[in-house]
Each structure stands twice: as structure tokens, then as C-alpha cells.
From TrEMBL, chains A, B:
<dbReference type="Pfam" id="PF00587">
    <property type="entry name" value="tRNA-synt_2b"/>
</dbReference>
<dbReference type="InterPro" id="IPR002316">
    <property type="entry name" value="Pro-tRNA-ligase_IIa"/>
</dbReference>
<dbReference type="InterPro" id="IPR002314">
    <property type="entry name" value="aa-tRNA-synt_IIb"/>
</dbReference>
<keyword id="KW-0436">Ligase</keyword>
<keyword id="KW-0067">ATP-binding</keyword>
<keyword id="KW-0648">Protein biosynthesis</keyword>
<dbReference type="Pfam" id="PF03129">
    <property type="entry name" value="HGTP_anticodon"/>
</dbReference>
<dbReference type="GO" id="GO:0004827">
    <property type="term" value="F:proline-tRNA ligase activity"/>
</dbReference>
<feature type="domain" description="Aminoacyl-transfer RNA synthetases class-II family profile">
    <location>
        <begin position="32"/>
        <end position="281"/>
    </location>
</feature>
<dbReference type="InterPro" id="IPR004499">
    <property type="entry name" value="Pro-tRNA-ligase_IIa_arc-type"/>
</dbReference>
<dbReference type="InterPro" id="IPR016061">
    <property type="entry name" value="Pro-tRNA_ligase_II_C"/>
</dbReference>
<dbReference type="InterPro" id="IPR006195">
    <property type="entry name" value="aa-tRNA-synth_II"/>
</dbReference>
<keyword id="KW-0030">Aminoacyl-tRNA synthetase</keyword>
<comment type="subunit">
    <text>Homodimer.</text>
</comment>
<protein>
    <recommendedName>
        <fullName>Proline--tRNA ligase</fullName>
        <ecNumber>6.1.1.15</ecNumber>
    </recommendedName>
</protein>
<keyword id="KW-0963">Cytoplasm</keyword>
<dbReference type="InterPro" id="IPR036621">
    <property type="entry name" value="Anticodon-bd_dom_sf"/>
</dbReference>
């Protein structure tokens, strides 16, 4: 078979861009750093959204929508926040044919404008916790854009919550981080992640604690797949988000925020993609099974349509491909590129013997299956293929992660994988040294893998890696 | 009962804003003309989106996402388009800390940027029709903003399609207009609409034909609930969207676009709202039934929870309100404000006789119903209440629409309702005269109510009205 993509081993970044183009996932937009998400890519994002949204609602959070334009003065109210975001802002200076009295920032994130409204809506402790989320586009001017991973405009969800106590805020942020984000990535994307705490230097601008879920990409680099922040009382004080307590005193709230974005599309590609294209985890796949007419005639199209109907009735997301005027080979290559988990190839010869061919994207296997057994075979294959993708990604991460004792060894190991090293052997000075060599501390965890309460806890483990 | 809202008859615009505030549907944003859609309002919008999206997909259209920022030069390529939108544009001049070489327009609509990509994606007649839709925010600077109806930023869906022939483009636009838009408004929103053709003066900037669905609000003004446009080859020529035909010649495509927005939220309120608040059509309502504990004790909470479970199992969207610490009257007022179709009031006295009280929002009726009959009673009430809302709105429209023969009579009748008048008695000169008196031609229809193919057809009827 002719090579469709630059092989991963030859040039990983080019393989990534090739895959996105050939699978028709996205195009570059007309403005540098922006992207067009094409129907094949957007259908995957819609499945991500629907599943994530259900988990967010299950956590008791309500969706809302806040404005795109934020008065520049709002961003200035929290010192760390404005300092962190200023270099990335896009600014509207003219509207309605006139120059504006105050320039408007196109939201890079919505802590500030949501803080303003939390202050209006929260009155007493009975109004807390206030748990909000929005699905929206945000803009951060990127100097080195890369499709899905770093784009000037991206799509995301951003949760914003206000609580009466620090303990309640912390518990909420951890609940979302584990039961929404980590669970979604493992159960829906089949991507194993390491949850951990960001160092002070890697925190979100304005946060007192940033938690991350890190995944290893196919080139062993790390990708931050989502983050959850405790914001302490920083935004509550900047925006005067207060409540009257049961005892009658006026107190500042404790707020959190948490976000995941179309960046997950990039992670999905780089964790599961291979030299033939994307491999979609079955729970996520918009089309789980493509029933393909190899060659029309001899009842083939009818048999294929019947299979489609049976699979649909069994709850499988199935598409019939009966485009007999397009060469079968090209259709199969396209299905592989787009990562459709299962192809069922229906041809006259197989059919004569009562079989069809089941081709599984996860491992490239092809087997003849009696036509009467298809529904059972497909449903169990879809289940197994999710696990297979997850297990393979986890095994790959473990093979490429080493435990070391010193900063020097960690920086060296991070050239070709992830290094786990005692945080006490790194520290803030060591972190700077690593950064100078394009290695970052991805996160800190306890030895047993649980989430630290502070960077100062003894015996913390640091993950060092190159990253996107 | 104390009056909650300014009565509709006293001051309709103030009633509208009161309702939006008191029902917690939306707030004004910090930038003039922008809005914050609060959770109660956003849940309604999400239900609109989900149903509309399913209808759009059923029509064979795929979702995608195009960038927020459009190079200013794109808008200039189609002369009518730039002329129509220039006064409403918001412009980004600075980003990433620098002045941009070319200013970026925040999309007021996406014909131009989508045209650019259609040109890349369409090669042969086999690629047609190309049917795309996106859910997005758009920005049009508004001088006289009003929540949901005219906001500087609003949420919408915009369909954009390319076709090989004018006939195919026309058929598609009409199919969406009737089977997606009109059907959605009648079947989901319980809002009767008049589909018709816009006059030349009221067309979308760059269209060769604009079709509208017009609804009568509670003050007898008209609201354009959605529009579908035939764009001819205007954008195809401006963006070079061409295809090679089966015969091998290179031809320009014919394109369409169509959109509906959060403006429908305003229409919903003004069609169905009354002096007690919103009335939600049952199919749309995020919460169809609120089961309310009138007073805790004597097994009331348990009985209410059991009813909630039974209704949920029967597919009803139900919420249990057991906040015994909040006065029952206040909870009932809030449920009315928010338009929840049915309240089931569970109290100790009723329960002792085996009954609960079913209160229907549509007509304010209250009846005792044996607790064993609730599921059946609720499901048939929800069905009937949709019809009731639709029928009432239609009857109101008919009562307030008059047939007249002359322009003068039409303008006079339009002060207090809608006028139907022969288009030949109005014409472009008459339209300008009417506009001078704040009356517009809402649309043209044939005498039998079907959609005209041109403004020049004989015997067309014009609808004249004041409008939002």
C-alpha cells in the first residue's frame, strides 16, 4: 500500500499535521494561528462535549453564557491574572464605526467577568456553592501555533464556582478533577493520565493551586489535557464576591475554575494515532462501524443495508458505505485515516459462504465472521478495543518513564521520555535549570500517586518531561 | 397575591424586562448591549439547540466550526455585504501586544470566511451539495439593544451550503425553511409563524432572496424568528467557489445561508408570557413538572419523592422541590415566573384523602388528582398544554390581523396589529412611506399562503406591521 502519511518515526510533527489534513479533521484559518474544524473533526468534538457535559451536570454544575468582550479594566483587578494574560490578549478598539472609550478584551478566560456577576448573584450562604460552567470560544494570541494544541482561538468549557469555605472549594475542584476530567479521559478517550499538582512556577495566573492531568503522547512528550484551579480568595477580593454567613458576618467567597479544550483533540491524535491515521476509541467514535459494499451486485448492497439496520437497532453508531463508484481501496484508506474502529466488508465471495470480513482499526486484524454473528462480534469487539487502546497507551507510558534520583539524570531521561524524581532533588532552582533545557516539571504527586495538598509536603515525586 | 411583574397591558416593554430579570433568564453584560444568559435561561436555549440540531442533521447538514476573526478584506469582496454590515462591525486592531497589519473583524456572520473554505474544498460536482452548519457567537454593534432581541453579541446557528444549480440551492433553502425552522417553531416552541418572502428592501446583505418566519408577539408587533437566504452566485463569484461539471466545464456554485438565534428566546417570552411570568411549552421546558412538598411531615416528602421517581421513569423531566425552609408561596411564584408547565403540590391534607393537587401553568387551573392517576394525568396534560399554547397564540394572531385594500388602511391597521394587503397596493414607494411611520413589510406570500418565487408575481399579499 502506498504510504499515506509521513511515518511517525520519521517526523512526528509532520505526521501530526499530515494526519489532520488527510483525515480532514481541520484546516488552518485565514488569520495566523486560527483553525477551521471540519465536519469529521467537529463530530468528534461534539461527542466529547456531550459526554463531558453530562458528567459536569452530574457534578451539580449548571451551564450559563457570559459575554465574549470584557472591559480591559476588569483584567487589571487581579494583579497576577493581568500579568499572566497581557501578552496574549486581542483587543477591540473600534466598534459601530467609532473608537471605543474603553478598549475591550476578547476573553482569554472568564474569571473576571464571571466574578463580577457572582458578586451580584451571591448574597447569603444559602446561595452557595454557586456552580457554573460555560462552553465557549476564547482567544489567546499564540506565537507558535499548532492545530488543536495551541491555537489563537479555541473552543473549551470553563467551570467557575464560588464556595463558603476553602475546604468546600478544594473538595469541589478535586471532585471535578478526578470524577469529571480524569474519568472522562480514561473512560471516553481511552487516554491514561497522571493527575498531579503544578509547581508554583507553572500555576494558572491568579490561582493558589493548579491541578493537571498529564498524558504521554506517541513521541513521549507530555500534554496537559486539562486543569483545575483553586483561586483562593484572590478573585473574590478583586470582584467583591461576598456572602453573609449564618452567623451574620460578611465573608469573601473561595472560588475555583477548571477547563478542558479542543486541545484534547490533539492529545487524542498523538496518543492513539498510527502510520495509517487516527484510531478512535469506540465510545468516542461518531461512527463506530462502517459497513462497506466491496463490490455491488449479487445481493451485496441489500445484505450490507440489512447489517446496518441490525447494528443500528443494537445501538451501534453505524454508517453504510455503498459508493460502488469509488474504488474500495480508497474508501478503506479513508476509513483508516479517520479512525473508524470497525469496518465490515461485504463482498460477493464472502457472502456466498455466509461470511463478511470484520476489520478492526485498533490492530489491523481482519477476520471472516458468519453474518448471523455480527452484532455480537461487533459489540464485544468495540468493548475490547477501548480497553486495548487504553492498555497500549498505558504500557507505552510505563515503558518510557524512568525513576531517577538526581536532577541531572532527570533532565537526561526527559530527552527521550518521562522522568520521575524526588521533588526535593529538584526544587525551584532545579526547575529553572530544567526549563533552560526545554524540560518542565509537569506535576507533583505523592509517592502513592495521590494529590498533594501543598508543594511543601515531604517525599513528593516530580514528573519531568518535554511537553507541548 | 402581590404583583410580581409590571402588567403586560400597562407597559409591555417593561413587563418583558421585568420577566427576564425576575425569572433569572438573563442579565445585562458589562459592555453595553451584551447579555449574560443565566442558568434558567441557558437551559431553555440548550433545549432549543438540541432539538434544532437534530432537525438540521436530519436535513443532511454537517456541523463544523469556523474562526471568530475574519480579515477585514474578506468582507469587502461582496459589495452589498460589506455595505450592509460595516456600521455594525467590531474590529480588533491590536493583539499579542502589537498593532496588527490588517485589522480583524469579529464575525457578524460567516458567509465570507466559509466561502473562502468552500472554494478550497469543492472541486467537482461530486463534492456538491456541501451542507454545513455552525453553532457560534456573532457580534453586531447595536445602537438600541434589548435583551435577547437585539444584543451586540448573540448565539446562533448559521447554515451555509453550496450547490451545483440554482434549483438545488432554492430547494434546499426552502426545505430548511419549512421542515427545520417552521416545524421547529410550531412543534417545539408552540409558536405559529407566517413563512414568507422579504421584499428587496428587507433582504439580507448579499442575498438574491430572503425568506422569513414571522410571529406575532403579545403586543401585536411582529418578530422575525429566523431567515433563510438564497445567495445566488454572489458569494461564489466573490470567493471563487467553483466546481467542474460532469461535462468538464468549470462553473460557479449557488450558495445559501440560514440562521436562527437567541432572539427566539425573546419571541418565546413575548408570545407565551403572561402577567405571572413565562409559560414554557412542555416539549421545550427543561423542567416539565415540579413536584412540591407543601409542608414536610406525615410522609409528604416520601410521597413526593416517589412521585418524582414515577414521573422520571415515565420519561417526564421532573424536579423535586422539598425546600421546606422556603415559604411555599414564594416557591410557587418562582415556578410560575419560570414557566414550569405543571406543579404537583403534595400536602398532608390532600395526601390523607389520596390526592395531590395538579396546577397547570397554561391556564392557572388547579385540580385534585388521585395519586395513582398522576403519571397518566401529567402526560396527557403536557400534550394538551402544547396544543393550547399554540392554539391561543394562533387565535390571538388571527384576532389581530385584518385584511385591507389600501396602503393607508394597512398603515393604520398596523398601529394595533397586522395588516394583510395586496402587494400591488403597496410597492416599493408604499413600503418607504410605511417605513416612515415605523411600519414595515414583514413578508410577501401568495394568496394561498405559499412561498412566492419572486416579488414580481401577481396577486401577492403583503403583511405590514410594527416590529422588533
Amino acid at each position: 500500500m502506498a504510504r499515506v502519511l509521513t511515518p511517525r518515526a520519521e517526523d512526528f510533527p509532520r505526521w501530526y499535521q499530515d494526519l489532520i489534513a488527510k483525515a480532514q479533521l481541520a484546516d488552518n484559518g485565514p488569520v495566523r494561528g486560527t483553525m477551521v474544524i471540519r465536519p469529521v473533526g467537529y463530530a468528534i468534538w461534539e461527542r466529547m462535549q456531550a459526554d463531558m457535559d453530562a458528567r459536569i451536570k452530574e457534578a451539580g454544575v449548571q451551564n450559563a453564557y457570559f459575554p465574549l468582550f470584557i472591559p480591559e479594566s476588569y483584567l487589571r483587578r487581579e494583579a497576577d491574572h493581568v500579568e499572566g494574560f497581557s501578552p496574549e490578549l486581542a483587543v477591540v478598539t473600534h466598534a459601530g464605526g467609532k473608537e471605543l472609550a474603553e478598549p475591550l478584551v476578547v476573553r482569554p478566560t472568564s474569571e473576571t467577568v464571571i466574578g463580577e456577576f457572582m458578586a451580584k448573584w451571591v448574597d447569603s450562604y444559602r446561595d452557595l456553592p454557586l456552580l457554573l460552567n460555560q462552553w465557549a470560544n476564547v482567544v489567546r494570541w499564540e506565537l507558535r501555533p499548532r492545530t488543536f494544541l495551541r491555537t489563537t482561538e479555541f473552543l473549551w468549557q470553563e467551570g467557575h464556582t464560588a464556595h463558603a469555605t476553602e475546604a468546600d472549594a478544594r473538595e469541589h475542584a478535586r471532585d471535578v478533577h478526578k470524577n469529571v476530567y480524569q474519568a472522562f479521559m480514561e473512560e471516553m478517550l481511552a487516554v491514561p493520565v497522571v493527575p498531579g499538582r503544578k509547581t508554583k512556577g507553572e500555576r494558572f495566573a491568579g490561582a493558589t493551586n493548579t491541578m493537571t492531568v498529564e498524558a504521554m503522547m506517541g513521541d513521549t512528550k507530555a500534554l496537559q489535557m486539562g486543569t483545575s484551579h483553586e483561586l483562593g480568595q484572590n478573585f473574590a477580593k478583586a470582584f467583591d464576591i461576598t456572602y453573609s454567613s449564618a452567623a451574620g458576618s460578611v465573608e469573601h467567597c473561595w472560588t475555583t475554575s477548571w477547563g478542558t479544550s479542543t486541545r484534547m483533540m490533539g492529545g487524542l491524535i498523538m496518543v492513539h494515532g498510527d502510520d495509517n491515521g487516527l484510531r478512535l476509541p469506540p465510545r468516542l467514535a461518531p461512527i463506530q462501524v462502517q459497513v462497506m459494499v466491496v463490490k455491488a451486485g449479487e445481493g451485496v448492497t441489500e445484505a450490507a443495508a440489512k447489517l446496518r439496520d441490525e447494528l443500528k437497532a443494537a445501538g451501534v453508531r453505524v454508517k453504510l458505505d455503498d459508493r460502488a463508484d469509488v474504488p474500495f481501496g480508497r474508501r478503506a484508506v479513508d476509513a483508516e485515516l479517520q479512525g473508524i474502529p470497525i469496518r465490515i466488508e461485504v463482498g460477493p465471495r464472502d457472502l456466498a459462504s455466509g461470511n463478511v470480513t470484520v476489520a478492526r482499526r485498533v490492530d489491523g486484524s481482519k477476520s471472516p465472521i458468519p453474518i448471523g454473528d455480527i452484532v455480537g462480534a461487533v459489540t464485544s469487539a468495540l468493548k475490547a478495543d477501548h480497553q486495548r487502546l487504553y492498555d497500549d497507551a498505558l504500557a507505552f507510558r510505563e515503558e518510557n518513564t524512568v525513576d531517577v534520583k538526581t536532577l541531572g539524570d532527570a533532565i537526561e531521561a526527559a530527552q527521550t521520555g518521562w522522568a520521575r524524581v524526588p521533588w526535593s532533588a529538584v526544587g525551584e532552582a532545579g526547575e529553572k535549570e530544567a526549563n533552560g533545557k526545554a524540560v518542565t516539571v509537569r506535576c507533583l504527586t505523592r509517592e502513592d500517586g495521590t494529590m498533594p495538598d501543598s508543594d511543601e509536603e515531604p517525599n513528593l515525586i516530580a514528573y519531568l518531561a518535554r511537553s507541548y
